[in-house]
Structure formats: structure tokens, C-alpha cells
Here is the input.
Amino acid sequence: MLSYQHMYHAGGLADVHKHAVLAVMLEKLSAKPKSLTYVETHAGRGLYDLGAPEAGKTGEAAEGILHLLKQGDLPADHAYARLIAACRAAHGPHAYPGSPWIARQALRDNDRIHLCELHPREVVALRETMGRRAQIQQKDGYQDVLRRAPFDPRRGFVLIDPSYEVKSEYRDAADFVLALHRKWPVATILLWYPVLEKALHKDMVDRVNDAGLPKTWSQEVLFDPTRRSRALGSGLLSVNTPFGIEAALDHVATLF
Ligand SMILES: C[S@@+](CC[C@H](N)C(=O)[O-])C[C@H]1O[C@@H](n2cnc3c(N)ncnc32)[C@H](O)[C@@H]1O
Here is the structure.
């Protein structure tokens, strides 16, 4: 099922959480000279227009990144703020970076980028945004990434950002994290999930936590209920979390 379109939700509170943490982690990982492989199972279109009717229809960006910037709550020297500024400088004042654009900007020429996206229209837009900088597959992200892992270079980062349109995606995401870690034990894995009233994420998070994977980190933030969003809050969990960014990750939670 491919009814989900991220252009309605880009720049919303969930994106702020996910992208701020992604920016912090990639900044840390790219500080070391050794090359990195960046992989995404669910890439989206890579670049969004917050002035588009889709963004206006839900108002999520207005309550998310635009509100944060207007309030001045995000320090200008924060890795995420610098990425947004770079995106606006390159693509205009209404541009908002998706995770592939963030990766391209944060990484170096010697790093590789592999992206999966299933929706035909999103794939076209993603290819246009990323050009030759990324290898893009119009395939199921779980199957394709699992088949190809471990990637070269071995030092890796995998973002898993499904739309959770159907309940079974929580089980699929947990299965994938556990299987991917078995095949590619050194990769950093970052999984996003929504916090909903029904707490559908609970079993998924418990399964990953109970597996005893190395250097795990997790963070759940609840949104101000007066601010529009698809969910009550947002959750992230990571495996092989980069060392020395605890304070920066804690700071992200204070943005909500
Ligand atoms: C939440 S959006 C991704 C947003 C993006 N990661 C970002 O932060 O900018 C999820 C995307 O996954 C795509 N998708 C859904 N099922 C998929 C699958 N099995 N494999 C790859 N992509 C899929 C959807 O078309 C949608 O564009």
C-alpha cells in the first residue's frame, strides 16, 4: 500500500525530532576520516517545498520546523539548523531537506549513499534531487537492504523511516533491525516510530531492547497537544550509537 505521501508531513514535529537526531549523528560520524556507507530503507523524495498546497493542507510544518525557527529555539550553530540554512540557500526560502538531502550535505565525497523508495513519483523526484550522488533502488527497502548488507565501506549508517500505514510494519521493522544487525554488526541503525494513543510501537521497541544489541540509545518525545501532528509523539532508537553525543541527543528532546 502506497497511499502515504511525505510531502503532507514534511517539516512536522516528527521530522524535527528525526532530522535533528540524524544531523547530530551524521556530524559525529563524518568527523572521523574513515569512509561511511549511508543507507535508507524508506527515502521519500529527498527535498520538500513547504510552500506547496500539500504542506499547507495539514499545517504540520507550520507547527513543526517553522514554529521552532520563529521562536528562535534552535541555535543557529546546531547541525540541524545549519542543514536547513544550507537547503534554503540552495533551493529557496520554502525548501525543507528530507533525510537523503541531509545525508548528502552532511557526508563527504568518499562516503557512499544507497537509497530505497517504492513510490514511483517519489522515486522520480528523489533521482532529480540526488542526481549521481546516490544509488537509488525502486525496491522494498527491507528486502533490498537486507539482501545487500553488509555494504562497502563497512562502516555504515542505516536509517529506517517507514510510514507505519499498517500495523504489521511494527513487526517488520523489528524483524529488520534484528536481521540487519546479524548481517552487518558494525552498522549504526536508527529507527523512527510514531507514538500513538494505542502504543502500537511498544512490542517493537521491547523486542529490539530485549535482544541485547550493543550501544543502544532511545528517546521518546511527546508533542504539545495544541500543535497539529499525526501522532502524540515521536520515538527513535539506535544501535551502535556514535560515542560522545549524549548531551547533544538530550538537547534535541528539549526542543519539544
Ligand atoms: C516517512 S516517508 C520517508 C521520509 C524520509 N525518510 C525523510 O525523512 O525525508 C516513508 C517513505 O517510504 C516509502 N515506502 C513505503 N513502503 C516502502 C517500502 N517497503 N520500501 C521502500 N519505501 C517504501 C513511501 O513511499 C514514503 O515515501
